[in-house]
Amino acid sequence: MTLLSLLLSQYLYQLVKAKPSLAQKVQKIVAGYVESHRGSGHVEVPVEDVDSLIQADFKETSLSTTVYILNPKIPVDSKGREIPYHYVKKGHHCGTSLWAGQERYTWVDISSTSQQYGPSTMGPGVVTPYSIPRLAHYTKKNAVLVHELASHLVTLVRRTCQQLVTPSLQHFPVPYESKTIIRLVLIRDSLSLSGRKTQGKGGFDFDVVKAQLARLQLVGQSISFKQTDIDFIRCPVCATAFYASRKVHTSTIDGSGVTVPNAYLSSESLHEWLGRVRGSIPLDDDGDEEDGVTRVVSREIPIYLFDLSLPEHAMQIDRNKQAVGFSDTVVAVQSSRGEASSGRTRLDQSCGRTPLEYSSKYATRPILAAVLQGGWGVAATHESWDQASNKTQIEWLWSVGPTVFGYFSDDTTLPFSIRDAAKRSVLYSVVNESIAGVHTFIRDFARYGKELDEVLSTAQHTEFLRRWNVYVYKMDKAGLYISLHNHEHAMYYLLSVKHDIAALRDIVRVAGQGLHSSMVCNKIYTNASGGSSGGWVALLAVVLLCGGGYAGQTGRRGVTLLRERVKRG
Protein backbone atom coordinates (compact mmCIF):
# COMPACT_ATOMS: atom_id res chain seq x y z
CA MET A 1 0.00 0.00 0.00
CA THR A 2 1.39 3.42 -0.95
CA LEU A 3 0.49 6.95 -0.04
CA LEU A 4 -1.52 7.31 -3.26
CA SER A 5 -4.02 4.70 -2.11
CA LEU A 6 -4.57 6.70 1.09
CA LEU A 7 -4.50 10.19 -0.40
CA LEU A 8 -7.84 11.98 -0.58
CA SER A 9 -8.37 15.51 -1.86
CA GLN A 10 -10.70 17.81 0.03
CA TYR A 11 -11.50 21.40 -0.85
CA LEU A 12 -12.63 24.22 1.42
CA TYR A 13 -14.60 26.79 -0.55
CA GLN A 14 -15.36 30.37 0.41
CA LEU A 15 -17.68 32.49 -1.71
CA VAL A 16 -16.62 36.16 -1.82
CA LYS A 17 -18.09 38.96 -3.91
CA ALA A 18 -15.48 40.81 -5.94
CA LYS A 19 -14.96 44.53 -5.60
CA PRO A 20 -17.33 46.62 -7.76
CA SER A 21 -14.36 48.49 -9.21
CA LEU A 22 -12.96 45.26 -10.67
CA ALA A 23 -16.27 44.44 -12.38
CA GLN A 24 -16.47 47.95 -13.81
CA LYS A 25 -12.95 47.78 -15.24
CA VAL A 26 -13.60 44.41 -16.92
CA GLN A 27 -16.87 45.74 -18.34
CA LYS A 28 -15.10 48.79 -19.72
CA ILE A 29 -12.42 46.72 -21.47
CA VAL A 30 -14.94 44.39 -23.12
CA ALA A 31 -17.17 47.26 -24.21
CA GLY A 32 -14.20 49.11 -25.69
CA TYR A 33 -13.20 46.24 -27.97
CA VAL A 34 -16.82 45.59 -28.97
CA GLU A 35 -17.23 49.22 -30.05
CA SER A 36 -14.02 49.20 -32.09
CA HIS A 37 -14.85 45.88 -33.77
CA ARG A 38 -15.54 45.99 -37.48
CA GLY A 39 -16.87 43.16 -39.61
CA SER A 40 -18.43 39.83 -38.73
CA GLY A 41 -17.22 37.10 -36.42
CA HIS A 42 -16.32 37.08 -32.76
CA VAL A 43 -14.87 40.13 -31.08
CA GLU A 44 -11.35 39.28 -29.87
CA VAL A 45 -10.35 40.71 -26.49
CA PRO A 46 -6.65 40.41 -25.53
CA VAL A 47 -6.14 38.16 -22.54
CA GLU A 48 -3.42 40.43 -21.15
CA ASP A 49 -5.82 43.36 -20.63
CA VAL A 50 -8.14 41.43 -18.31
CA ASP A 51 -5.49 39.18 -16.77
CA SER A 52 -3.47 42.16 -15.51
CA LEU A 53 -6.56 43.42 -13.64
CA ILE A 54 -7.23 39.99 -12.11
CA GLN A 55 -3.59 39.57 -11.10
CA ALA A 56 -3.51 42.95 -9.34
CA ASP A 57 -6.71 42.14 -7.44
CA PHE A 58 -5.39 38.71 -6.47
CA LYS A 59 -2.19 40.12 -4.99
CA GLU A 60 -4.22 42.63 -3.01
CA THR A 61 -7.05 40.51 -1.64
CA SER A 62 -6.36 36.75 -1.90
CA LEU A 63 -4.48 34.34 0.36
CA SER A 64 -5.00 31.04 -1.46
CA THR A 65 -6.09 29.71 -4.85
CA THR A 66 -8.88 31.86 -6.28
CA VAL A 67 -11.35 31.21 -9.09
CA TYR A 68 -12.80 34.45 -10.48
CA ILE A 69 -16.24 34.23 -12.14
CA LEU A 70 -16.57 37.23 -14.47
CA ASN A 71 -20.01 38.37 -15.55
CA PRO A 72 -19.83 41.53 -17.65
CA LYS A 73 -22.93 42.74 -19.44
CA ILE A 74 -23.50 40.83 -22.67
CA PRO A 75 -22.97 43.24 -25.59
CA VAL A 76 -25.75 43.62 -28.16
CA ASP A 77 -26.06 45.45 -31.47
CA SER A 78 -28.62 48.06 -32.50
CA LYS A 79 -31.16 45.34 -33.19
CA GLY A 80 -30.75 43.73 -29.79
CA ARG A 81 -28.79 40.74 -31.07
CA GLU A 82 -25.95 39.39 -28.99
CA ILE A 83 -22.41 40.22 -30.11
CA PRO A 84 -20.21 37.19 -29.35
CA TYR A 85 -16.70 37.75 -28.03
CA HIS A 86 -13.86 35.69 -26.61
CA TYR A 87 -10.31 36.18 -25.35
CA VAL A 88 -7.12 35.56 -27.29
CA LYS A 89 -3.42 35.69 -26.56
CA LYS A 90 -0.61 36.06 -29.06
CA GLY A 91 0.86 32.68 -29.91
CA HIS A 92 -2.26 30.75 -28.88
CA HIS A 93 -4.41 29.00 -31.44
CA CYS A 94 -7.77 29.19 -29.71
CA GLY A 95 -10.14 31.82 -28.48
CA THR A 96 -11.18 31.07 -24.92
CA SER A 97 -13.47 32.08 -22.07
CA LEU A 98 -11.10 31.06 -19.28
CA TRP A 99 -7.50 31.55 -18.22
CA ALA A 100 -5.00 30.37 -15.59
CA GLY A 101 -2.54 32.93 -14.29
CA GLN A 102 1.07 32.66 -13.21
CA GLU A 103 -0.05 33.21 -9.64
CA ARG A 104 -2.60 30.90 -7.98
CA TYR A 105 -5.70 32.25 -9.65
CA THR A 106 -7.94 31.41 -12.61
CA TRP A 107 -10.79 33.29 -14.18
CA VAL A 108 -13.83 32.36 -16.27
CA ASP A 109 -16.04 34.79 -18.19
CA ILE A 110 -19.56 33.34 -18.33
CA SER A 111 -20.72 36.09 -20.72
CA SER A 112 -18.22 35.29 -23.48
CA THR A 113 -18.47 32.56 -26.12
CA SER A 114 -15.74 29.93 -26.26
CA GLN A 115 -14.69 28.23 -29.47
CA GLN A 116 -14.99 24.50 -29.92
CA TYR A 117 -11.66 22.69 -29.67
CA GLY A 118 -10.38 19.16 -29.28
CA PRO A 119 -10.02 16.08 -31.53
CA SER A 120 -11.24 16.62 -35.10
CA THR A 121 -12.45 13.15 -36.09
CA MET A 122 -12.47 10.97 -32.98
CA GLY A 123 -11.33 11.02 -29.38
CA PRO A 124 -12.56 12.13 -25.95
CA GLY A 125 -12.43 15.50 -24.23
CA VAL A 126 -13.92 17.77 -26.91
CA VAL A 127 -14.77 21.22 -25.51
CA THR A 128 -17.88 22.84 -26.98
CA PRO A 129 -19.50 26.24 -26.29
CA TYR A 130 -21.77 24.38 -23.88
CA SER A 131 -18.89 22.91 -21.85
CA ILE A 132 -18.60 26.22 -20.00
CA PRO A 133 -21.82 27.59 -18.48
CA ARG A 134 -22.86 30.86 -20.13
CA LEU A 135 -25.31 33.29 -18.68
CA ALA A 136 -27.19 33.41 -22.01
CA HIS A 137 -27.91 29.68 -21.78
CA TYR A 138 -29.72 30.14 -18.47
CA THR A 139 -31.77 33.22 -19.35
CA LYS A 140 -35.43 32.68 -20.22
CA LYS A 141 -37.87 35.51 -20.78
CA ASN A 142 -35.39 38.00 -19.29
CA ALA A 143 -35.18 35.89 -16.11
CA VAL A 144 -32.07 34.01 -15.01
CA LEU A 145 -32.47 30.36 -14.00
CA VAL A 146 -30.38 30.85 -10.88
CA HIS A 147 -30.40 27.30 -9.49
CA GLU A 148 -29.47 25.68 -12.80
CA LEU A 149 -26.71 28.22 -13.42
CA ALA A 150 -25.33 27.83 -9.89
CA SER A 151 -25.19 24.05 -10.11
CA HIS A 152 -23.22 24.17 -13.37
CA LEU A 153 -20.86 26.81 -11.99
CA VAL A 154 -20.17 24.60 -8.98
CA THR A 155 -19.37 21.72 -11.35
CA LEU A 156 -17.00 23.96 -13.34
CA VAL A 157 -15.18 25.07 -10.18
CA ARG A 158 -14.87 21.46 -9.05
CA ARG A 159 -13.41 20.40 -12.42
CA THR A 160 -11.00 23.34 -12.26
CA CYS A 161 -9.74 22.27 -8.83
CA GLN A 162 -9.25 18.68 -9.96
CA GLN A 163 -7.28 19.70 -13.06
CA LEU A 164 -5.24 22.63 -11.75
CA VAL A 165 -5.16 22.60 -7.93
CA THR A 166 -4.78 18.86 -7.21
CA PRO A 167 -3.94 17.23 -10.56
CA SER A 168 -3.05 13.56 -10.92
CA LEU A 169 0.52 12.23 -10.90
CA GLN A 170 2.15 10.80 -14.01
CA HIS A 171 4.14 8.28 -11.95
CA PHE A 172 5.07 7.71 -8.32
CA PRO A 173 7.32 8.01 -6.39
CA VAL A 174 9.57 10.85 -7.54
CA PRO A 175 12.95 10.65 -5.77
CA TYR A 176 14.11 13.58 -3.68
CA GLU A 177 17.79 14.15 -4.35
CA SER A 178 20.00 16.99 -3.15
CA LYS A 179 21.47 17.42 -6.63
CA THR A 180 19.92 16.81 -10.03
CA ILE A 181 21.68 17.19 -13.37
CA ILE A 182 19.78 17.74 -16.59
CA ARG A 183 22.13 16.64 -19.35
CA LEU A 184 21.34 17.54 -22.96
CA VAL A 185 22.87 15.12 -25.47
CA LEU A 186 22.35 16.72 -28.88
CA ILE A 187 22.78 14.07 -31.60
CA ARG A 188 22.99 15.21 -35.22
CA ASP A 189 22.47 12.84 -38.10
CA SER A 190 24.91 14.52 -40.51
CA LEU A 191 27.87 16.89 -40.90
CA SER A 192 27.91 20.22 -42.71
CA LEU A 193 29.36 20.47 -46.23
CA SER A 194 32.69 21.58 -44.80
CA GLY A 195 32.91 18.41 -42.74
CA ARG A 196 32.40 20.22 -39.47
CA LYS A 197 29.50 19.93 -37.11
CA THR A 198 26.68 22.36 -37.69
CA GLN A 199 26.45 25.02 -35.05
CA GLY A 200 23.51 25.84 -32.83
CA LYS A 201 20.69 23.66 -31.64
CA GLY A 202 18.18 24.23 -34.41
CA GLY A 203 14.86 25.16 -32.86
CA PHE A 204 15.73 24.03 -29.36
CA ASP A 205 16.36 26.71 -26.72
CA PHE A 206 18.07 25.11 -23.73
CA ASP A 207 18.02 28.43 -21.85
CA VAL A 208 14.22 28.34 -21.68
CA VAL A 209 14.31 24.85 -20.17
CA LYS A 210 16.95 25.96 -17.64
CA ALA A 211 14.97 28.99 -16.53
CA GLN A 212 11.73 27.08 -16.02
CA LEU A 213 13.16 24.01 -14.28
CA ALA A 214 15.16 26.20 -11.91
CA ARG A 215 11.82 27.36 -10.49
CA LEU A 216 11.09 23.83 -9.23
CA GLN A 217 13.89 23.63 -6.65
CA LEU A 218 12.91 22.83 -3.07
CA VAL A 219 14.84 23.22 0.18
CA GLY A 220 18.16 21.41 -0.02
CA GLN A 221 17.91 20.88 -3.77
CA SER A 222 19.95 22.19 -6.66
CA ILE A 223 19.48 21.66 -10.39
CA SER A 224 22.39 22.03 -12.81
CA PHE A 225 22.58 21.67 -16.57
CA LYS A 226 25.17 20.22 -18.94
CA GLN A 227 25.33 19.79 -22.69
CA THR A 228 27.14 17.46 -25.10
CA ASP A 229 27.07 17.81 -28.90
CA ILE A 230 27.79 14.68 -30.94
CA ASP A 231 26.78 13.12 -34.25
CA PHE A 232 26.33 9.69 -35.79
CA ILE A 233 30.03 9.60 -36.78
CA ARG A 234 31.37 10.19 -33.26
CA CYS A 235 28.61 8.11 -31.69
CA PRO A 236 27.89 5.02 -33.79
CA VAL A 237 25.88 3.47 -30.95
CA CYS A 238 23.51 6.47 -31.22
CA ALA A 239 23.00 5.70 -34.90
CA THR A 240 22.39 2.06 -34.00
CA ALA A 241 19.72 3.05 -31.46
CA PHE A 242 18.11 5.39 -33.99
CA TYR A 243 17.88 2.89 -36.85
CA ALA A 244 16.88 0.00 -34.57
CA SER A 245 13.93 2.06 -33.27
CA ARG A 246 12.42 2.79 -36.69
CA LYS A 247 8.92 1.42 -37.17
CA VAL A 248 6.36 1.68 -39.97
CA HIS A 249 2.63 2.25 -39.64
CA THR A 250 0.46 1.61 -42.66
CA SER A 251 -2.96 3.01 -43.44
CA THR A 252 -5.33 2.51 -46.35
CA ILE A 253 -7.14 5.38 -48.05
CA ASP A 254 -10.88 4.72 -48.09
CA GLY A 255 -12.22 3.64 -51.46
CA SER A 256 -8.85 3.54 -53.21
CA GLY A 257 -7.15 0.45 -51.83
CA VAL A 258 -3.87 2.39 -51.69
CA THR A 259 -1.71 1.62 -48.64
CA VAL A 260 0.32 4.53 -47.32
CA PRO A 261 3.36 3.79 -45.11
CA ASN A 262 4.29 6.17 -42.31
CA ALA A 263 7.72 5.74 -40.68
CA TYR A 264 8.21 6.76 -37.06
CA LEU A 265 10.46 6.14 -34.05
CA SER A 266 9.30 3.96 -31.18
CA SER A 267 9.84 5.69 -27.84
CA GLU A 268 10.05 2.35 -26.01
CA SER A 269 12.73 1.06 -28.37
CA LEU A 270 14.71 4.30 -28.16
CA HIS A 271 14.56 4.19 -24.37
CA GLU A 272 15.67 0.57 -24.27
CA TRP A 273 18.53 0.99 -26.75
CA LEU A 274 19.88 4.24 -25.30
CA GLY A 275 19.77 2.77 -21.82
CA ARG A 276 21.71 -0.24 -23.08
CA VAL A 277 24.48 1.82 -24.75
CA ARG A 278 24.46 4.75 -22.34
CA GLY A 279 27.97 3.99 -21.07
CA SER A 280 29.36 4.03 -24.62
CA ILE A 281 28.04 7.49 -25.56
CA PRO A 282 30.94 10.00 -25.56
CA LEU A 283 30.19 12.82 -23.13
CA ASP A 284 32.13 16.00 -22.45
CA ASP A 285 32.44 15.05 -18.76
CA ASP A 286 31.39 12.11 -16.65
CA GLY A 287 30.87 13.69 -13.25
CA ASP A 288 29.79 16.77 -11.41
CA GLU A 289 32.80 18.97 -10.77
CA GLU A 290 32.74 21.57 -8.07
CA ASP A 291 35.85 23.44 -6.86
CA GLY A 292 38.04 21.00 -8.76
CA VAL A 293 36.66 17.97 -6.92
CA THR A 294 34.65 15.33 -8.77
CA ARG A 295 31.66 14.10 -6.83
CA VAL A 296 29.15 11.37 -7.50
CA VAL A 297 25.99 12.74 -9.09
CA SER A 298 22.87 11.98 -7.06
CA ARG A 299 20.51 11.97 -10.01
CA GLU A 300 20.95 12.58 -13.71
CA ILE A 301 18.23 12.93 -16.33
CA PRO A 302 19.64 12.75 -19.86
CA ILE A 303 17.78 14.38 -22.75
CA TYR A 304 18.64 12.63 -26.00
CA LEU A 305 17.67 15.09 -28.75
CA PHE A 306 18.06 13.83 -32.32
CA ASP A 307 18.55 16.85 -34.60
CA LEU A 308 17.54 15.46 -37.99
CA SER A 309 18.39 17.22 -41.23
CA LEU A 310 18.30 14.43 -43.83
CA PRO A 311 14.93 13.91 -45.61
CA GLU A 312 14.92 10.16 -45.00
CA HIS A 313 15.22 10.79 -41.25
CA ALA A 314 12.19 13.10 -40.99
CA MET A 315 10.24 11.10 -38.42
CA GLN A 316 8.33 11.76 -35.22
CA ILE A 317 8.22 9.69 -32.05
CA ASP A 318 5.24 7.36 -31.72
CA ARG A 319 3.86 8.84 -34.97
CA ASN A 320 2.84 12.30 -33.64
CA LYS A 321 5.13 13.31 -30.77
CA GLN A 322 8.38 15.21 -30.61
CA ALA A 323 9.38 14.16 -27.09
CA VAL A 324 8.52 11.41 -24.60
CA GLY A 325 9.59 11.41 -20.97
CA PHE A 326 10.52 8.37 -18.90
CA SER A 327 11.43 8.39 -15.21
CA ASP A 328 15.15 8.22 -16.07
CA THR A 329 15.39 9.48 -19.67
CA VAL A 330 13.85 11.88 -22.19
CA VAL A 331 13.94 11.07 -25.91
CA ALA A 332 13.15 13.77 -28.47
CA VAL A 333 13.50 14.68 -32.14
CA GLN A 334 13.46 17.88 -34.14
CA SER A 335 13.60 18.07 -37.90
CA SER A 336 13.50 20.76 -40.54
CA ARG A 337 11.64 18.28 -42.73
CA GLY A 338 7.97 17.64 -42.05
CA GLU A 339 4.95 16.79 -44.10
CA ALA A 340 5.55 17.73 -47.71
CA SER A 341 9.01 19.08 -46.65
CA SER A 342 7.35 22.10 -45.08
CA GLY A 343 8.62 21.35 -41.58
CA ARG A 344 5.07 21.28 -40.22
CA THR A 345 3.00 18.29 -39.12
CA ARG A 346 -0.79 18.27 -39.21
CA LEU A 347 -2.71 16.99 -36.19
CA ASP A 348 -6.08 15.35 -35.77
CA GLN A 349 -7.10 18.29 -33.57
CA SER A 350 -8.80 21.54 -34.39
CA CYS A 351 -9.97 24.77 -32.86
CA GLY A 352 -12.91 26.67 -34.27
CA ARG A 353 -13.03 24.21 -37.19
CA THR A 354 -9.42 25.10 -38.08
CA PRO A 355 -7.08 22.06 -38.16
CA LEU A 356 -4.00 22.42 -35.97
CA GLU A 357 -0.44 21.74 -36.98
CA TYR A 358 2.90 22.13 -35.28
CA SER A 359 6.41 22.83 -36.46
CA SER A 360 8.78 19.88 -36.14
CA LYS A 361 11.72 22.33 -36.13
CA TYR A 362 11.10 23.54 -32.58
CA ALA A 363 11.40 21.02 -29.77
CA THR A 364 11.76 23.35 -26.76
CA ARG A 365 8.19 23.13 -25.54
CA PRO A 366 7.65 19.35 -25.97
CA ILE A 367 11.03 18.62 -24.34
CA LEU A 368 10.14 20.79 -21.34
CA ALA A 369 6.85 18.91 -21.03
CA ALA A 370 8.60 15.53 -21.30
CA VAL A 371 11.15 16.45 -18.59
CA LEU A 372 8.29 17.45 -16.28
CA GLN A 373 6.49 14.17 -16.91
CA GLY A 374 9.53 11.95 -16.57
CA GLY A 375 11.63 13.75 -13.98
CA TRP A 376 8.92 15.26 -11.76
CA GLY A 377 5.91 13.03 -12.39
CA VAL A 378 3.69 15.87 -13.64
CA ALA A 379 0.69 14.66 -15.62
CA ALA A 380 -0.39 16.53 -18.73
CA THR A 381 -2.97 19.26 -18.14
CA HIS A 382 -5.58 17.38 -20.18
CA GLU A 383 -5.06 14.04 -18.37
CA SER A 384 -6.49 12.99 -15.02
CA TRP A 385 -6.96 9.69 -13.24
CA ASP A 386 -10.51 8.56 -12.62
CA GLN A 387 -10.65 6.22 -9.64
CA ALA A 388 -14.17 5.01 -10.41
CA SER A 389 -13.29 3.66 -13.87
CA ASN A 390 -9.61 3.03 -13.03
CA LYS A 391 -8.66 4.76 -16.29
CA THR A 392 -7.09 7.97 -17.51
CA GLN A 393 -9.66 10.59 -18.50
CA ILE A 394 -9.01 13.19 -21.21
CA GLU A 395 -10.41 16.72 -20.95
CA TRP A 396 -8.99 19.62 -22.96
CA LEU A 397 -10.83 22.35 -21.04
CA TRP A 398 -7.76 24.06 -19.54
CA SER A 399 -5.35 23.27 -22.38
CA VAL A 400 -5.89 26.63 -24.08
CA GLY A 401 -4.23 28.54 -21.25
CA PRO A 402 -0.56 28.85 -20.29
CA THR A 403 0.56 25.23 -20.34
CA VAL A 404 3.43 23.35 -21.98
CA PHE A 405 1.21 20.32 -22.67
CA GLY A 406 -0.90 19.84 -25.79
CA TYR A 407 -1.03 21.81 -29.02
CA PHE A 408 -3.61 24.49 -28.26
CA SER A 409 -0.95 26.80 -26.82
CA ASP A 410 2.61 27.80 -27.61
CA ASP A 411 3.47 28.84 -24.05
CA THR A 412 6.84 27.85 -22.54
CA THR A 413 6.24 29.47 -19.14
CA LEU A 414 5.13 27.22 -16.29
CA PRO A 415 1.90 28.39 -14.58
CA PHE A 416 1.18 27.81 -10.90
CA SER A 417 -0.63 24.53 -11.55
CA ILE A 418 2.43 22.86 -13.11
CA ARG A 419 4.96 24.33 -10.65
CA ASP A 420 2.86 23.24 -7.67
CA ALA A 421 2.30 19.77 -9.13
CA ALA A 422 6.04 19.23 -9.65
CA LYS A 423 6.91 20.25 -6.09
CA ARG A 424 3.98 18.38 -4.58
CA SER A 425 4.96 15.10 -6.26
CA VAL A 426 8.39 15.29 -4.59
CA LEU A 427 6.82 16.12 -1.22
CA TYR A 428 4.36 13.24 -1.50
CA SER A 429 7.25 10.90 -2.27
CA VAL A 430 9.16 12.03 0.83
CA VAL A 431 6.02 11.56 2.95
CA ASN A 432 5.52 8.09 1.50
CA GLU A 433 9.16 7.19 2.21
CA SER A 434 8.84 8.39 5.80
CA ILE A 435 5.67 6.39 6.46
CA ALA A 436 7.14 3.28 4.83
CA GLY A 437 10.31 3.59 6.91
CA VAL A 438 8.38 3.74 10.17
CA HIS A 439 6.09 0.87 9.16
CA THR A 440 9.11 -1.36 8.57
CA PHE A 441 10.40 -1.39 12.14
CA ILE A 442 7.01 -0.90 13.82
CA ARG A 443 5.91 -4.32 12.51
CA ASP A 444 9.34 -5.90 12.86
CA PHE A 445 8.32 -8.19 15.76
CA ALA A 446 5.00 -9.31 14.26
CA ARG A 447 6.58 -12.43 12.78
CA TYR A 448 7.48 -13.53 16.30
CA GLY A 449 3.94 -13.02 17.56
CA LYS A 450 4.96 -9.95 19.55
CA GLU A 451 3.61 -6.43 19.58
CA LEU A 452 5.99 -3.53 19.98
CA ASP A 453 4.53 -2.64 23.39
CA GLU A 454 5.46 -6.12 24.69
CA VAL A 455 9.10 -5.70 23.69
CA LEU A 456 9.80 -2.19 25.02
CA SER A 457 10.72 -1.72 28.64
CA THR A 458 8.99 0.97 30.69
CA ALA A 459 11.75 3.49 30.11
CA GLN A 460 11.98 2.66 26.42
CA HIS A 461 8.21 2.88 26.04
CA THR A 462 8.17 6.38 27.54
CA GLU A 463 11.03 7.53 25.32
CA PHE A 464 9.38 5.97 22.25
CA LEU A 465 6.05 7.74 22.88
CA ARG A 466 7.74 11.10 23.31
CA ARG A 467 9.64 10.75 20.07
CA TRP A 468 6.55 9.35 18.32
CA ASN A 469 4.50 12.39 19.32
CA VAL A 470 7.15 14.67 17.82
CA TYR A 471 7.11 12.59 14.64
CA VAL A 472 3.30 12.81 14.35
CA TYR A 473 3.37 16.56 15.05
CA LYS A 474 5.91 17.21 12.29
CA MET A 475 4.02 15.06 9.78
CA ASP A 476 0.80 16.94 10.57
CA LYS A 477 2.59 20.24 10.07
CA ALA A 478 4.02 19.07 6.76
CA GLY A 479 0.54 18.08 5.58
CA LEU A 480 -0.85 21.45 6.65
CA TYR A 481 1.79 23.40 4.74
CA ILE A 482 1.35 21.23 1.65
CA SER A 483 -2.37 22.05 1.64
CA LEU A 484 -1.49 25.75 1.97
CA HIS A 485 0.95 25.50 -0.97
CA ASN A 486 3.81 26.47 1.34
CA HIS A 487 6.19 23.89 -0.06
CA GLU A 488 9.33 25.31 1.54
CA HIS A 489 8.03 24.97 5.11
CA ALA A 490 6.60 21.53 4.33
CA MET A 491 10.01 20.32 3.16
CA TYR A 492 11.66 21.72 6.28
CA TYR A 493 9.42 19.54 8.45
CA LEU A 494 9.87 16.47 6.24
CA LEU A 495 13.65 16.77 6.35
CA SER A 496 13.52 17.26 10.11
CA VAL A 497 11.35 14.19 10.65
CA LYS A 498 14.15 11.96 9.37
CA HIS A 499 15.98 12.53 12.66
CA ASP A 500 12.93 11.34 14.59
CA ILE A 501 12.63 8.23 12.42
CA ALA A 502 16.29 7.40 13.08
CA ALA A 503 15.77 7.88 16.84
CA LEU A 504 12.67 5.63 16.83
CA ARG A 505 14.55 2.96 14.91
CA ASP A 506 17.40 3.06 17.44
CA ILE A 507 14.97 2.58 20.33
CA VAL A 508 13.44 -0.47 18.66
CA ARG A 509 16.88 -1.87 17.78
CA VAL A 510 18.09 -1.61 21.38
CA ALA A 511 14.87 -3.23 22.62
CA GLY A 512 15.33 -6.10 20.19
CA GLN A 513 18.77 -6.88 21.60
CA GLY A 514 17.10 -8.07 24.82
CA LEU A 515 15.18 -10.83 23.04
CA HIS A 516 16.22 -14.48 22.80
CA SER A 517 14.66 -17.65 21.46
CA SER A 518 13.58 -20.66 23.50
CA MET A 519 11.96 -23.95 22.57
CA VAL A 520 8.70 -25.09 24.14
CA CYS A 521 6.49 -28.06 23.37
CA ASN A 522 2.90 -28.24 22.18
CA LYS A 523 0.92 -31.47 22.52
CA ILE A 524 -0.22 -32.68 19.09
CA TYR A 525 -0.79 -36.46 19.49
CA THR A 526 -2.15 -38.72 22.23
CA ASN A 527 -1.34 -42.44 22.37
CA ALA A 528 -4.55 -43.88 23.78
CA SER A 529 -3.37 -47.49 23.96
CA GLY A 530 -0.10 -46.67 25.66
CA GLY A 531 1.75 -49.13 23.38
CA SER A 532 5.31 -48.56 22.30
CA SER A 533 4.62 -49.01 18.57
CA GLY A 534 2.38 -45.92 18.50
CA GLY A 535 5.11 -43.94 20.20
CA TRP A 536 7.64 -44.88 17.52
CA VAL A 537 5.24 -43.88 14.74
CA ALA A 538 4.68 -40.54 16.42
CA LEU A 539 8.42 -40.18 16.92
CA LEU A 540 8.99 -40.66 13.18
CA ALA A 541 6.40 -37.96 12.40
CA VAL A 542 8.09 -35.54 14.79
CA VAL A 543 11.51 -36.18 13.28
CA LEU A 544 10.17 -35.49 9.77
CA LEU A 545 8.29 -32.34 10.73
CA CYS A 546 11.02 -30.84 12.90
CA GLY A 547 13.88 -31.64 10.57
CA GLY A 548 15.72 -33.86 13.01
CA GLY A 549 14.89 -32.08 16.29
CA TYR A 550 12.83 -34.02 18.89
CA ALA A 551 11.88 -33.39 22.47
CA GLY A 552 8.99 -35.02 24.34
CA GLN A 553 7.79 -38.34 25.59
CA THR A 554 5.68 -41.34 24.58
CA GLY A 555 3.06 -43.32 26.40
CA ARG A 556 -0.12 -42.06 27.94
CA ARG A 557 1.12 -38.46 28.01
CA GLY A 558 1.52 -38.51 24.22
CA VAL A 559 4.09 -37.03 21.80
CA THR A 560 4.98 -33.33 21.61
CA LEU A 561 6.22 -31.07 18.80
CA LEU A 562 8.78 -28.27 19.20
CA ARG A 563 7.64 -24.61 18.87
CA GLU A 564 9.77 -21.47 18.99
CA ARG A 565 8.96 -18.81 21.55
CA VAL A 566 10.56 -15.39 21.90
CA LYS A 567 11.17 -14.03 25.37
CA ARG A 568 12.58 -10.77 26.59
CA GLY A 569 15.51 -11.34 28.93
Which percent bin holds the helix content?
25-40%
Major beta sheet, strand line-up: 10-9-15-17-16
Summed up, the helix count is: 13
Main sheet properties: 5 strands, mixed
- Count of the separate structural domains: 4
Question: Distance between termini?
Answer: 35 Å
Mean pLDDT, to the nearest integer, reads 83
Uncertain stretches: 192-200, 290-294, 532-564
Q: Which secondary-structure class do the elements indicate?
A: alpha/beta
User: What overall geometry do the principal axes of the alpha carbons give?
Assistant: globular
What is the gyration radius calculated from CA atoms? 32 Å
**Could you tell me the number of beta strands?**
23
Report strand %. 15-25%
Give structural notes:
- The protein has 569 residues and is an alpha/beta fold.
- The protein has four domains: 156 residues, no CATH class; 198 residues, no CATH class; 88 residues; 52 residues, no CATH class.
- The chain is 34% helix and 23% strand.
- The chain has 13 helices and 23 strands.
- The strands form nine sheets. A five-stranded mixed β-sheet has the order 10-9-15-17-16, with helices on both faces. Strands 2-5-4 form a three-stranded mixed β-sheet, covered by helices on one side.
- A hairpin with a 6-residue loop joins strand 11 and strand 12.
- Helix 11 runs antiparallel to helix 12.
Keywords for this entry:
569 residues, alpha/beta, 4 domains, 13 helices, globular
Question: What's the helix and strand layout?
Answer:
Elements: H1 3-6, H2 20-36, E1 43-46, H3 47-61, E2 66-70, E3 85-88, E4 98-100, E5 105-109, E6 117-119, E7 139-140, E8 143-144, H4 146-165, E9 179-188, H5 206-213, E10 222-231, H6 236-244, E11 246-252, E12 259-265, H7 267-276, E13 288-290, E14 293-295, E15 299-308, E16 323-325, E17 330-335, E18 344-351, E19 354-359, H8 364-376, E20 383-386, E21 391-394, H9 416-442, H10 452-455, H11 458-483, H12 487-512, E22 515-525, H13 532-546, E23 559-568
Parallel strand pairs: 1-3, 2-5, 9-10, 9-15, 15-17
Antiparallel strand pairs: 4-5, 6-18, 7-8, 11-12, 13-14, 16-17, 18-19, 20-21, 22-23
Helix pairs in contact: 2-3, 5-8, 6-7, 9-12, 11-12
